[in-house]
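fold-stage: in
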Amino acid sequence: MTDSALLACAVVEHPAFRCGAELDRIDPAVLSAGEQIDLLVVLEEQRRWFEAAQLRVLAAIGAGDTSALGLGQEAVSLALQLPLRTAQTRLAQAETLVTELPRTLAAVTAGSISAAHAHVLAEAVWRLPADKPELPAALEAAVLPDVLAARCVTAPQLRRRVRRAALALDPSTAEQRHQLAVADRRVDYQPGEDGMASLTALLPAPEAQLLFTRLTTAAGLLPAEDRRSLDQQRADLLIDAMLSGLPQDALPQVQGRRPAIQVTVAADTLLGLDDQPGHLTGYGPITAQQARRLAAEESGTWRRLLTDPDTGALLDISPHRYRPPQQLRDYLSARDDTCVFPTCQQPAHRCEPDHTTPFDQGGPTRRDNLALTCHRHNQAKAGTGWHYRHNPDGSFTWTTHTAHRYTRPPNRPWPRPPSR
């Protein structure tokens, strides 16, 4: 049997009846471009089928864990090489899916959605009031059919849909949940790679959006010849704003000193005799060049510690027109919300109105012939074999160069009217 014939059989089979050994025999290099996409989908469905099986095992482990400390999470953590918190979350997600979201778990088994999609629904259930046991099934019914019909909704896109549905299903306690969430606001620091780190803030959405918008707007005031990217400009503006807005001299002392960073560096490294890494307290190892640069800072922000390279002892401490009118652009922003490419999340303000039927081919500048697309997905239509259509129900169907079709469901930022 040829590789194409093996693939054709696999495409029509349920994941439970596919043979992994036969799938592994298929050489993707001999398949057509369309068949390669089909094989990718088959393998993804197979992976999801195993994900569902693993979720059921996790649920059984959680249900059978009778230890006082709940050591099942340690067992899972070790077996799967996961952080404990991740293992704990996986166990809780599995229990919720098995006991409260059976249709969602069945969709994972069928390969229609991934475990990541299922986890979005499970975590949303945790935020629903316990005294309303009917809500998990109602939430599942509100969002799952559209996702299964589209088959191209990403997990982050699903999260937005789930949030909207949860608010509609339980408006009476939504504000209470919001106030509890506000109490959890925080700023986190996470060391990264290559001398970088993440500083993340969990804030109320309006304030977070306002901060981001102001940083973006301030970046627009910088000289045109500024060669930094927009991301770099925002990051540098945030550093400048925080360090100037919270001057060191105005801050209270902590353990007898003003807040500062602490760099530990060997004397030979500081003098350029070797390139041993330095150490940034709270982060870890940094390059010798970074350590020298920080140690040489004379602004008073940095506190320098020198150690002997042999003994490690501390040596020293120093102190009808083509362009739509604005009213129509506002309508498109409200209707589409993001780029209409199914898996794109570029927000409306970064997109431009696009004529579904090109203007130079007689396409009118009307809302039924306009859609918001980001620059990349606008360019995707230019001689590549990709195109899309605007469906009567407000969805957008994209066709790829291999004739595969994917539909972006209608965006519904407002609640549906009640059925009569």
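fold-stage: in (second)
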Amino acid sequence: MIRFLENIGEYFSTNYFDEDFAKKVLEESNHSKETLHGFRQDISKLREKYYSFKHQIIETRLRTKDKILETHKFHTLLLDALGYDGKLNDYDTPFHITDQEVIPIRHILRNSASNKINLMVLEIQPMIRVNIDEPPDGLFQQSYDCETEETSSEQKYHRSQWKEVFEIEKDLKVSPTVVNQCISKIALLDKSERPNFILVLAGNKLFLIEPEKWMRGSYLIFDIEELFSIATGRNLDLYTVFYLLVGKDTLCPDGQSLMHVLGENSHKSAHEVTQDLKEGVIHAVEKLANEYLYYQKTILNRDFDETDDTFEKEVRDDCLTLVYRLLFIFYAESRPELGILPIKNKTYLKGYSLEMLRDLEQVHLGTKEAKNGYFFHHSLYKLFGLLYEGNRGDQESFRINSIDSPLFDESKLNHLGYSPKVASQTLPPPPSY
């Protein structure tokens, strides 16, 4: 996985954005080795300039407006390294949302043939952490202007702080003022005015946004400092990958964009996974249903009419519900940032998680009791119960918020439901290990 790049909201499908993603980017670029080497050198030369810039932000006690100016200067160096002309800007002609409302956009870059807007470049205050107790504001907190006095102690939000970078005429209003709302406003523009991409520069961070994906919560975050810390030795190609993903050749091409190619490949990969998942669900439902019938007949000696269409449908629906539960939990455990399951908590990870059960599934079972036990069954239903009822936790445990959904409601199951009362009637006790 590329540590300097965050794939928010699956901008690229999870299975496509894997440990080989950097290799995929390089292979799809179609540039010569010499050209790729040039890209790498252009970005690597920024390293010392970035740390000099960071030192100014943290150590020299600059005023907010001076921090903004120094950040603007670093953005110029960054844009130059990425193939843009950083010294040019469009601040003198503000981008109008209405006659009186404008958004300060640094660059508007168009396709030379169609005149369609390829890219809009915005810049905001740096996201370098200055105060250890107060994280820097990001896209959803920063503002270009603020009519109240309630502003961050580190970052002031009124247009006078930007006067060394851009000035807006007094009869015009910066609106929306909050950065994420500006982006949403651009994303909702008429297609003829809407850019293919939006690049937001924030000192140590870059945000790459595609309007349609932004509206469903998907975008990319590039951490420049993380890039400079890991792009050493065998990882020098990461400089090239960074250039290829946000450079001018990619975001402002006269032909097909590399990002478009990567997006298409990601979509195809997701479709293939969907097909595999569909087949996997069908196989899992068959296995669960057959095991349920075996258990009823062989272990409990119960007779029932297998040709009963209603019975068949109820068992199938129960099996589907169990499979959907597992898929939900696998996804929740793979996305700890969602906060659904405490996958980083050792008690949960080692005692309750599907990750733990997946590891145990690889363990050789040497006795008949172990092979025919019900540890997995009881563990899964315990986890299902925690999700439905929640777990308040304490200092030594973990917390899970209740999911009020029919998916985990045992009363909605016709035959495969689980409760202590049902368990005592139908299941032998699990073996002790």
